[in-house]
Amino acid sequence: MPEQIRVLVVEDVPQVAQYIRGLLNSQETIRLLDVVADGSLVADMVREQKPTVLIVDALLQGSVKGGALIRSLRDANVQVPLIVLTVPQHPILPSPDTGVSAVLSMPFTGFDLISKIHAVAAESAAASSMPVRVIAVYAPKGGVGRTTLAYNLAVAMHRGGAHPVLVDGSLQFADVRTLLKAPADVPSLLHLPTDKVVVSDLHDVMWRDSSGIDVLLAPPRVEMAEMVNAQDLAKTIALLRMVYNVVVVDTASVINDATLAFLDAADFILDVLTYDATTIHNTLAMAAAFRSIGYPDEKIRYLVNRADSLGGLDSAAVAGMLGRTPEHRVCSGGALVVKANNAGKPFVTTDPDSDISHDVIRTARELLALPLPARQGHR
Ligand SMILES: Nc1ncnc2c1ncn2[C@@H]1O[C@H](COP(=O)(O)OP(=O)(O)O)[C@@H](O)[C@H]1O
Ligand SMILES: [Mg+2]
Predict the structure, then answer these.
(1) What are phi and psi of 4, to 5 degrees?
(2) pLDDT in tens, 32-62
(3) Which of 32, 26, 27, 29 is nearest to 2 (CA)?
(4) Are 318 and 305 in contact (CB under 8 A)?
(5) 303 close to ligand 1 (CB < 6 Angstrom)
(6) Closest ligand 1 atom, CA of 139?
(7) Is 274 a pocket residue for ligand 1 (Cβ < 6 Å)?
(8) What domains sit in the chain, N to C, each tagged with a CATH number?
(9) Residue 377 has what pLDDT?
């Protein structure tokens, strides 16, 4: 028999609780763990009973109200898909930002409830069985769009149901810290213990961005980059692999031990270029360096940013020089990119219907669908 879907329901209206019990108890594929009326018990029950799906009434009363419970589940990063019950007068939309996977408006039928439970359980099973991947967003030249793309790709992956973490690997200038306007006192990867880092240490140093993604920031001052040890970075990435299913690293251009630690640890290097001669020159030089390090060709994925910009080299000439056609392309976003970056917001959510957002969302999907290359290319 296939594994049952374990459902925990938080409902304080006796008639609704009774209705749900009746519907779920007759289902072979679903096991109703409990119906609780007190929101303050939910966090512990989730930990102990490990439900596959949570159902919460948004209008829950008592010491912990429905809205507060939903927010606290999201903030605690509970990796259990959440179905919210509401009434038409109090509409709620499903969104990764609020941690709500699906919404049922009362009154609902047994069919509505059961099919929603199956749908969110299947979605979450697909996301959790995805093999973990580390993607280093790299370019041998500054200003080509690494930080902008790394952030927006991570947010697009999060919205697509993955569980990404963004690592600020531009250690000297902390590009991600600057972009997200994280204050200087927010911890950085320097705050991880140097010896024996364990998974629980990660939680203390993560910055939860307003987009909903977790970010591991670089230190706030240039000279502090010196204090980061490349071996610790490799350990940190290995730990992040245990907690997240995608690790996106925004790297610096300079090739030093820290950058190499990130590139070595990556399953894919997303090598960003633009159609201008100096960028292409440096990209070709790095392609030769990657080959001599022993990285397999499949580890490198080329992304042309501002691919529609006029006055640059043409794509056929670039493909000729690289010996392959760049796998990904993102168009120019013009002012909307500058505006979103200045506000520290991801354009994939502020302007989801723009061409550049479509390109980034497609690229995120492409990167998540790639088969993982063999890891023997690592030094
Ligand atoms: N596709 C794009 N369209 C328009 N502007 C872009 C695009 N990609 C990047 N930019 C802009 O280019 C500048 C440099 O981007 P950034 O992400 O900081 O590059 P890097 O991290 O490679 O130095 C930023 O001002 C950003 O707003
Ligand atoms: Mg940058």
Answers:
(1) -75, 150
(2) 999 999 999 999 999 899 999 999 999 999 9
(3) 29
(4) no
(5) no
(6) 22
(7) no
(8) 5-128 (3.40.50.2300), 133-377 (3.40.50.300)
(9) 41
